[in-house]
Amino acid sequence: MLAEPHFNRHPGFWKMLTVAVFMALLGCLQAQEHQGHVSIILLGATGDLAKKYLWQGLFQLYLDEAGKGHSFSFHGSALTTTEKGQEFMAKVLESLSCPKDVAPPRCAELKDQFQQLSQYRHLKTSEDYLALNKDIEARVQREGLWEAGRIFYFSVPPFAYADIARNINSSCRPGPGAWLRVVLEKPFGHDLLSAQQLATELGSFFQEEEMYRVDHYLGKQAVAQILPFRDQNRKFLDGLWNRHYVERVEIIMKETVDAEGRTSFYEKYGVIRDVLQNHLTEILTLVAMELPHNVSSWEAVLQHKLQAFQALRGLQKGSAVLGQYQAYSEQVRRELQKPDSFHSLTPTFAGILAHMDNLRWEGVPFILMSGKALDERVGYVRILFKNRAYCAQSEKHWVTDQSQCLPRQIIFYIGHGELGSPAVLVSRNLFRPSLPSKSWKEVEGQPGLRLFGRPLSDYYVYSPVREQDAYSILISHIFHRRKGSFITTENLLASWVFWTPLLDSLVHEVPRIYPGGAENGHLLDFEFSGNQLSFSQQQLEQLVPGPGSVPKPSDFQVLRAKYRESPLISAWPEELIAKLANDIEATAVQAVRRFGKFHLALSGGSSPIDLFQQLAMGHYGFPWAHTHLWLVDERCVPLWDPESNFQGLQAHLLQHVRVPYYNIHPMPVHLHQRLCAEEDQGAQIYAEEISALVTNSSFDLVLLGMGPDGHTASLFPQSPTGLDGEQLVVLTKSPFRPYDRMSLSLPLINRARKVAVLVMGRMKREITTLVSRVGYEPKKWPISGVLPASGQLVWYMDYEAFLG
Ligand code: BG6
C-alpha cells in the first residue's frame, strides 16, 4: 500500500499553508512598493561619455526599474556653471530614445518623467557635497521615503578621483542601512606602480565591495555570453576546449577611427594601455580560465580569472609588433603644440602573441590585436580548431554539418563588421550549441555573406533577442549589485603585472608607420613562430627617421683576423650569430660522429639569446638527441625565476628543440629549499656530475661572454674562487644583482676542446680594446685567463664591439 501523504493526515495543514503563502505574497508586494529611494549622481555629466552613453543608460535603468517599487533621482554634475550645465543636460535628455516597442506618445511621457527627476548641480567644493547630502536627505524625508542607496558614477579624468572620493567619503555617504556604490572609468593607472597607488588611494575611501570599475567590453553582449556559453555547452566543449583541439585563439578589436582630438590622452597611453591591457585581456581570461562549477558566482569567476593570469607566460619584446598610422605624429604636433621635429613613438596598432603555461593551453597561440585607422571596424573572439582530417571525396559532396574537412570554429562576434551586430557562431560540423532562448535567438544568415572564409550558412548563428548597449547593461548590473561584470582591484593589478614589463621594454621601440584605412594593404599582417611575432612583410621604406644610413648586414663580409693570438670572427650581428650557430652545429655533428655525444656548456645573460633562437629555428641537422647541455654559470635564484640563466635557455632554446631531459644539466643552485648554501654542496654535486659524464671533464664546446669589467662566466675581477686551483665548479659573488652565483672555474673551462667567446654591442667596445692589450691577468680581467690547455679558442665579435 502506498504511504498516505503526510499533510492529508493534518486537515489544518492547507489552512496554514494558505495563510503563509498569502502573508509571503503580501510581504513581497509591500517590499516592492517600498523598495526605497535611489540617488544617482553622474560626475562629469557634460562629458563625451555621458552624452554618448551614460544618460541613455540611466534612462534605460529608469524604464526597467521605476515600475518595480524603487523611486529615483538623478543628479548630473560637472564643473560647468549651473546655467551651462542645465542647458547641456536639457539637450541631452531631449535626445534620449526609447526601445523600439515603446509607442512615441508613451516615450514622450516617460522622457518627461525622467527629466522631472533629473537635475544639474555644480559639485566642486566640500560644501557642494554637503549640500547634496542634505538635499537628498531632505527629499527622502519630505516624500516619506526611505533611502536604499546612492550611486556615484565617476565619468571624470583620473586626476580628479582623489578629491571627489574624499568628498563623498566625508560628506556624502548615505546613512546606516543604505548602500554606496561608486563607479569608476578607466584609465586605472598607467603601469603596475601607478595602478597600485591609485588603488591604495581609492581603498582609503571606499570598501572593495563599494567600487565598480568599468570595462565596458564586459557589458558587450557577445563577451558577456562567453562564460554562460562555455557553461551551457559543457558536454560538447569539455573535450574540445584545450590544446589538443584548439589551433589558436584570436581576440581582435579593429577600429577605423583614429586618435584625432584625443591625442593628449593617447600620447600617454597608446593602444596597448588603451585597449589591450583591459578589454582584450579580460576577454582572454574569459576564454582561457578554468570554468568554475558555478559561473554565476562572481567570487568563483574572479578566482579562476586570477589563476588564468598566473598561467600567462611573461611577454617579451619579440611578442609584439607595433604600428602607428602616418598622420598621428602630425596630429600630436598640432594638438599638443609640439615642434616640427617631434616624432611620436606611441603605437596606435599592436599585435601580441600570448601563451598560457598550463596543461590546458600549453602551446596554443593567443593572438591579441587592435589598432586605429584600420580598414574596418569589427571586434571578435575566434577559436579556431585543429583539423586533422583528410577527405577523400571531392568538396562538392561535403555536407556542411558533417564534413570534418571544413574549418571548425567558434566565434563570439562582438559587433560591427560584416554582420553588423553581436552574434555567437558555431561551425555546423562542430555541434549545435545551446544558448539561453530568452535572450538569444537563432538567425538565418544573409545569403551571400561570408565570414572567416566560409559562407554564413556553414555556421549556427545566434543573435541577442534585444540588442543592448554595453553601458545600459552595466548600469543595470551596478544597480543589481552584479559584481561579476566589473574589475576588482586584484584583477586590475594582475593585468598590470602581466603588461608592465612588456610596456617597459617597448618604450624606445619605433612603430611601423602605416598609411591608414584600406591603403594599409598587407603592411600590418604579422606571423608567429615559437614565442616570436613579426610583420610578414619587410618594411621597404622607413618613414620615421631611424638610425639612418647604417649599411645593411648583407653589405659586409665576415672578417677573419686575430685577437689575443686566437682567431677572431667579426661581422654584423645577424651574420655573426648565423656563423656561430653554424660553427656550433658543425662541432656538434663532428663530436657525435666521433664520440656518440656532444657536451655543450652555455652561458646565460642577454648576448646568447639571439644565438639560442637561431639554433632553435634554423638548424634541422643539429644532433639534439645526442647533445648534453650544461650551464657555464647560474644566478642563485630558483630555476623558474625569470632571472635564472636556465630560464633563458629554456625559453629560447629548450622548448623548441628535442633534447632528452636526462641530457639537460641545470646547475643545482636550489637545494633543500635554499639557494647556493655552502653546506648543500651544490658546486661539488655539479662537479661530480660533470666528472661522471664528460670524459676528462673536457667539454666539446664552452660558450662564454665577456662583461664590460672583463668578467666571464660568473668569475668577476678579484674573485677569491674559480680563477685557479682544483675546484671545477665554484660559488662566487657578483657586483651586480643577483649577487650570489655558481660558475664553472677557469681551470675547468680551459680543459674544453673548444671555447667560443661571444662579444656584442657598443657597450663592450672599451673592454674589447683594453683586453686586446693585456696579458694573462685573470685576477684583474678573468677573461684574460681563458686559455684552453689543448683546445681551441675563437672570438666572435660584432662590428660594434670590435670596431666601435
Ligand atoms: C575605449 C577606448 O575603451 O574603447 C577607445 O578608449 C576605443 O580608444 C573604444 O575607441 C572602443 O569601444 P567600442 O565600444 O566603440 O568598441
UniProtKB/TrEMBL annotation:
GO terms for biological process: glucose metabolic process; pentose-phosphate shunt; regulation of cortisol biosynthetic process. One of its GO terms (molecular function) is NADP binding. Coiled coil: none annotated. SUPFAM superfamilies: Glyceraldehyde-3-phosphate dehydrogenase-like, C-terminal domain, NAD(P)-binding Rossmann-fold domains, NagB/RpiA/CoA transferase-like. Residues 1-31 form the signal peptide. GO terms for cellular component: endoplasmic reticulum lumen. It comes from the Eukaryota. In the C-terminal section; belongs to the glucosamine/galactosamine-6-phosphate isomerase family. 6-phosphogluconolactonase subfamily. This is GDH/6PGL endoplasmic bifunctional protein.
